[in-house]
Design a protein that fits this description.
The chain is of the alpha/beta class. It folds into two domains: 239 residues, Glycogen Phosphorylase B (Rossmann fold, 3-Layer(aba) Sandwich); 209 residues, Rossmann fold, CATH 3.40.50. 42% of the residues lie in helices and 17% in strands. It is built from 17 helices and 16 strands. The strands form three sheets. Strands 5-6-7-10-9-8 form a six-stranded mixed beta sheet, sandwiched between helices. A hairpin with a 2-residue loop joins strand 9 and strand 10. The radius of gyration is 23 Å and the shape is globular. The relative contact order is 0.13.
Length: 479
């Protein structure tokens, strides 16, 4: 279960990392994918729309407009998102938002219930659905349920500012496995449980709340590195990539790709690039920085303001540092196709991935996978991105340190070929050792561990409640 679901018309996953990862896992052994349809209505929603695509059943439901505004635009994105990204100053507390968030989770649980089989293993994704297991448990379901958080989890001093904080912790404690990207996030969550005296740690890294035992695990998400590498190689003939190469001349390309969000550190990155040019005048007219930033959450006023502010920063740099025949920053405020983006990564001498805080950041991994191993580019990576725990051979920077990041850009552009190859080889080996299939397999095997040992997983749903029997039963992925 995830907030957004691929197109139910053809079952095609979007280019987003979560969608691609889950689509691959479900295609391998079948299953049901349930979530929001992406539509809002001005009435009570109809029962979920169910579409069969191969061995995947897609089930999506609409949301009333008011509930969506409270649950998504309100609590999820004005309380959970800023707090999980360590931005106490941006959190908004509104009782209606909080009630709407829990009410929508209850509605999703009630809509999902008739579709469940007694032996289903349920994998729930991301901050939108933290209370879902508790709602399903309240309906009597005893199925194995796992939750994976795709964004950071903060330490208790920050997390405790959340509205309904203890209810959210109890909701997470209702799962059988709670997964995070990094050891730090997992440790932060354990610290919250300890501080609030929720449950007690037991052997094997598990916790016990009442009679319920659950596991806290670290499962860094990977990418399909082989497929992305091949896409990047083939994309050299992509029309957009060829035009970009022609327009660059002999200049080096620096690339940043981020959804528009305050957690991505785009303004700070532009300031660091400006500092780099001022501090290294020899690179004037020798580099071009391409920042691709598709719009995001345009209905939220804070994001509209952010769009204008970042555009102004890019404009200031171009106006004050540019020349008649050189625009230092090319700022693109829309999406670029998957294939063309892979080709641009491969062309770029430097990948700038400098979020202020990120759960994982798959752009970092995609940039590494896209490189030509004989002449690879250099990844500059924020130490506050989850990917930094795996890609330690990148140049790690503090994105708040403008001069430090500027110095890292200069270092990357001056780096020897041998050092670039050594760094890239080490990072690529790590991508190969932990791909997207490994992530899915590791999580599902952890979730099914008690099943393998013979523990019951049956829920209260009688067999045969769903008319169609075409959906394959979910089983542990082979390890």
């Amino acid at each position: 279960m995830s907030n957004r679901v691929p197109s139910t018309k053809d079952g095609t996953a979007s280019a987003g990392g979560l969608a691609v990862a889950l689509e691959g896992a479900l295609r391998s052994h079948g299953g049901l994918w349930f979530g929001w349809s992406g539509k809002t209505v001005d009435r009570a929603p109809d029962p979920p729309e169910i579409v069969q695509s191969g061995n995947i059943t897609f089930a999506v439901m609409d949301l009333p407009k008011r509930d969506f505004d409270l649950y998504y635009g309100g609590f999820a994105n004005r309380a959970l998102w800023p707090i999980c990204h360590y931005r106490l100053d941006l959190m908004q507390i509104d009782r209606n938002h909080t009630e709407g968030y829990f009410r929508v989770n209850r509605a999703f649980a009630q809509a999902l219930a008739p579709l469940l089989r007694p032996d289903d293993v349920i994998w729930i994704h991301d901050y939108h659905f933290i209370p879902l297991a508790a709602e399903l448990r309240a309906l009597g379901f005893r199925n194995r349920m796992g939750f994976f958080l795709h964004i950071p989890w903060p330490p208790s001093d920050i997390a405790s500012a959340l509205p309904a904080y203890c209810d959210l912790l109890q909701g997470l404690a209702s799962y059988d496995v709670v997964g995070f990207h990094t050891p730090q996030d997992a440790d932060n969550f354990r610290g919250c449980l300890i501080r609030e005296k929720i449950g007690q740690p037991i052997e094997g890294g598990s916790y016990k709340v009442g009679d319920h035992r659950f596991q806290i695990g670290v499962f860094p998400v990977g990418i399909d590195h082989a497929a992305f590498s091949e896409t990047a190689r083939a994309a050299q003939q992509n029309p957009l990539v060829r035009r970009m190469r022609s327009s660059m001349g002999d200049r080096a390309l620096i690339i940043g790709v981020d959804r528009l969000d305050y957690s991505k550190g785009i303004r700070e990155r532009i300031e660091a690039f400006s500092c780099f040019i001022r501090s290294n005048p020899g690179f004037r007219n020798r580099v071009t920085y391409l920042q691709v930033t598709p719009k995001s959450r345009s209905e939220v006023p804070e994001y509209k303001r952010m769009q204008h502010e970042i555009a102004e920063h890019a404009g200031w740099t171009n106006g004050n540092l540019g020349e008649v025949d050189w625009t230092p920053i090319r700022y693109v405020n829309r999406s670029v196709g998957h294939r063309a983006l892979a080709g641009l990564y491969r062309m770029a001498r430097v990948g700038l991935v400098t979020p202020l805080r990120d759960g994982m950041n798959l752009v970092a991994k995609e940039y590494v996978a896209a490189q030509d191993g004989n002449d690879p580019g250099v990844l500059i990576l924020s130490r506050f991105a989850g990917a930094a725990y795996e890609l330690e051979e990148a140049i790690l920077v503090n994105p708040y340190d403008t001069e430090g990041t500027a110095a890292a850009i200069a270092r990357a552009l001056n780096m020897s070929l041998q050092e670039r190859r050594d760094r890239w080889s080490a990072m690529m080996a790590r991508l190969q050792a932990n791909g997207v299939d490994d992530w899915c397999r590791n999580f599902l095997n952890a979730l099914a561990s008690d099943l393998v040992a013979g523990a019951p997983a049956a829920g209260p749903v009688e067999p045969g409640r769903r008319k169609s029997s075409s959906r394959a039963r979910t089983a542990p992925m082979p390890g």
